Amino acid sequence: MNTQLRRTAVAVAAAAMAVSLAACGSAKEASDNGSGGDEKKKDGPLTIGLLMPDDQTARYENFDRPLIEERVKELCADCEISYVNAKQDASVQQQQMNSMVTKKVDVIILDAVDSKSIANSVKKADDAGIPVVAYDRLAEGPISAYTSFDNEEVGKVQGQALLDALGDKADDGQIVMMNGSPTDPNAALFKKGAKSVLDGKVKVGKSYDTTNWEPGEANKNMNGAIASVGKENIVGVYSANDGLAGGIITALKSAGVSPLPPVTGQDAELAGVQRIVAGEQYMTVYKPFKPEAYAAAEMAVALGRGEKPDTDATVDSPTHKGIPATLIQPISVTADKVKDTIVKDGLYKVEEICTSKYAAACKKVGLQ
Length: 368
Description:
This protein has 368 residues and is of the alpha/beta class. The chain has 13 helices and twelve strands. Helices cover 45% and strands 16% of the residues. A seven-stranded mixed sheet has the order 2-1-3-4-5-11-10, with helices on both faces. The chain has a three-stranded parallel sheet with strand order 7-6-8, with helices on both faces. Strand 6, helix 6 and strand 7 form a beta-alpha-beta unit. Keywords: Signal.
């Protein structure tokens, strides 16, 4: 080939590559802006991947999953939900995400076991044109939308409830902080919110991050705290959720602590609500699951159809800024508020809470 022909061939190839790259860029921009392209479904059935993190926390199987499925069916009767649960195993969830990408689902709702380790799988989904809705926990990577509660506010609510319960006793001893799992970004926000209220007002004798939100781990840690601080010196316990509170209270009882100090909680699990009625746990944070679950379903259907989700805020993750979000406010529930919140909203019926074991306690707090 002579020099002139070689130059011509190179120029043609460069021009073709430029056109190709421009086309790819346009398609990517259209997808990023939510306007979609020909590959986006505008109507008709969608396949929605739904990934929950564990089956130990009662809310995921009892409330989140059925409520999301309910709302999806209301919005799209022909839509199919492909559901999996990681059972608190981050590597299993990565495999589940990758499988969803291989199956070419239209959109994924993800409640991450580990917000950092799942980032590569989120990117794989994004590269495949599959939007990912982060549910309850903000996963890293290119998330398309996010819904959860104002998690820092959850911690503030817990911290303030503990201070209210302690009253003048706040200066008489020390508290134990039983925080959530270090792999859960929400746990860090709960802790941050709680500390913003508690710092300077109570002395923290021991503080723990509880691996995988395991009640058994909380029980072990609480036993350690009792041995280190002394049971007579513990005036209260910040517990990040109801499951941990159960392990904590078991440890306190086993150590012969009576009366029990105020212990916080979160998630309004049935066992937690029963402990509150019985006077063993001071409070829980009730997070109405329905608006959160419905928001996730609505986001997923909108994104699957190539539309922008209806959101009212933005959040930043460690890897991405300005993620469209819907944040829901938490509610503090003590024994005197169970009837007007949890029961009123239909989370549990009175007869579910007030079994024979708790009948007398229910009567005492006016829950009949």
